[in-house]
């Protein structure tokens, strides 16, 4: 559970400044350990992958690692230019737990079926401070998933963009693993309104899994292949009474469109033909934490299978 800490910060109707951000940050508490939950798993994978430290985030404050956070990525050995190159990212929003553990679980298990067939790059936890504090924002109260444009608007996005650019890969696919939670509506969207000095407009949290396709370059068959696979693991979110999911029209069951690059979303950071953002619903009475992780793995596998089937189309 996140810490509701925005209600008494600043003046209603006025955007936060540096002082308000500092107050908000001081109220966050470390609730889990990146080193234990993520880095320790990555260490077990070193015999099978090339592990890269692609950046380091500064120390935040007392109570957090004094050395800051090392950012790690896994890549498959023996890259070959003729193979499709696949980028998998998780933990852009650190509180979205199955995104982090879905990426790690894939690396531990199903990825073995694809080594030698695709070039894999996996960044399982883009925002480690947010993972530890179970937060959407980074320590500067900025959303990394609105910052993947230009040189990167946050340290987290900038480090990942530099690393991906340095690979010189020609990307065929990028899947970015996320969740939509009840705390999006009870905590994070009200916090965003308070930070920006605007009134919160309540929304509806969809019950189930859905995908965000790119409105500028939609790939409906790719999205449908993922939906079909995930539906065997967990339920797909229905449209609301207005035919929408989180305020966007449903274009096919469980699929909505966003302009990924224009919004600075992580899934829009490359020119990959096949791009998507997964959204798991971990608060559903119909889904367990294990199902949420399994849904992310199923989504990754279906996405890669589609790319392998359609390479050269």
TrEMBL record:
| Molecular function terms, GO-annotated | hydrolase activity, acting on ester bonds; metallocarboxypeptidase activity; zinc ion binding
Any one GO BP annotation for this protein: proteolysis
Question: Which Pfam families does UniProt cross-reference here?
Answer: AstE_AspA_cat
- Peptidase M14 domain segment(s): 30-311
In the UniProt entry, which residues are flagged as the active site? Answer: 279
- Keyword vocabulary terms for this entry: Hydrolase, Metal-binding, Zinc
Name the CDD domains on file: M14_REP34-like
State the needed cofactors, names only: Zn(2+)
InterPro entries from the entry? AstE_AspA_cat, Peptidase_M14
Q: Which family does it belong to?
A: Belongs to the peptidase M14 family.
What's this protein's name?
Answer: Succinylglutamate desuccinylase / Aspartoacylase family protein
- Recorded source organism is Hydrocarboniphaga daqingensis
């Amino acid at each position: 559970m996140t810490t509701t800490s925005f209600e008494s910060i600043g003046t209603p109707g006025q955007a936060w400044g540096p002082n308000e951000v500092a107050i908000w940050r001081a109220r966050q508490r470390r609730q889990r350990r990146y080193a234990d939950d993520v880095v320790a798993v990555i260490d077990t994978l070193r015999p099978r992958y090339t592990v890269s430290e692609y950046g380091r985030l500064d120390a935040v404050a007392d109570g957090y690692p004094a050395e800051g956070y090392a950012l790690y990525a896994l890549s498959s050995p023996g890259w070959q230019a003729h193979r499709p190159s696949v980028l998998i990212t998780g933990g852009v929003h650190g509180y979205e737990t199955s995104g982090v553990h879905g990426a790690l679980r894939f690396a531990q298990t199903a990825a073995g079926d694809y080594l030698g067939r695709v070039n894999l790059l996996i960044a399982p936890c883009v925002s480690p401070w947010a993972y530890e504090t179970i937060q959407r924002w980074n320590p500067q109260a900025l959303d990394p998933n609105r910052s993947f444009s230009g040189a990167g608007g946050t340290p987290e996005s900038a480090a990942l963009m530099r690393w991906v650019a340095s690979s010189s890969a020609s990307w065929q696919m990028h899947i970015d693993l996320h969740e939509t939670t009840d705390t999006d509506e009870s905590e994070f969207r009200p916090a965003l309104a308070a930070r920006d000095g605007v009134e919160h407009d309540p929304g509806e949290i969809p019950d189930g899994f859905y995908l965000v396709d790119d409105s500028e370059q939609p790939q409906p068959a790719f999205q449908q292949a993922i939906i079909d696979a995930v539906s065997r693991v967990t339920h797909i979110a229905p449209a609301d009474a207005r035919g929408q999911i989180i305020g966007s029209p449903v274009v096919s069951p469980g699929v909505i469109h966003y302009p990924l690059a224009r919004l600075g979303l992580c899934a829009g950071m490359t020119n990959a033909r096949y791009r998507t953002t997964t959204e798991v619903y971990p608060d559903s009475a119909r889904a367990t934490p294990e199902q949420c992780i399994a849904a992310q793995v199923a989504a990754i596998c279906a996405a890669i299978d589609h790319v392998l089937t359609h390479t050269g189309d």
